[in-house]
Design goal:
Length: 91
């Protein structure tokens, strides 16, 4: 039995991220990247049918992962009771 197999039993794993704490791209050496792998099991988006319908529509038009899309979805719902307009801007 491999180490990775045993770690997966506990919802853990090993990944190689290169030297140091991350990697950079040759075209952008000042920007450091690392892989983020959530290991939480709480997944409220799986039972939110309205979100699932919306996400199915946008998933091929965004680089934002499902975790962050659901967070934005929740923020939008919370803003629904506030008068006026709001705008979420990001990069």
């Amino acid at each position: 039995m491999s180490v990775n197999h045993i770690l997966r039993l506990f919802n853990l794993g090993l990944i190689r991220v290169g030297r140091g704490h991350g990697r950079s791209h040759p075209k952008t050496p000042d920007i450091i990247h690392s892989r983020v792998l959530p290991s939480a099991t709480y997944s409220p988006w799986l039972s939110d049918n309205d979100f699932a319908d919306c996400y199915d529509t946008i998933r091929s038009h965004t680089l934002v992962d499902i975790y962050r899309c659901y967070e934005l979805w929740q923020i939008g719902k919370q803003q629904g009771n506030i008068e006026g307009d709001y705008l979420k801007v990001g990069v």
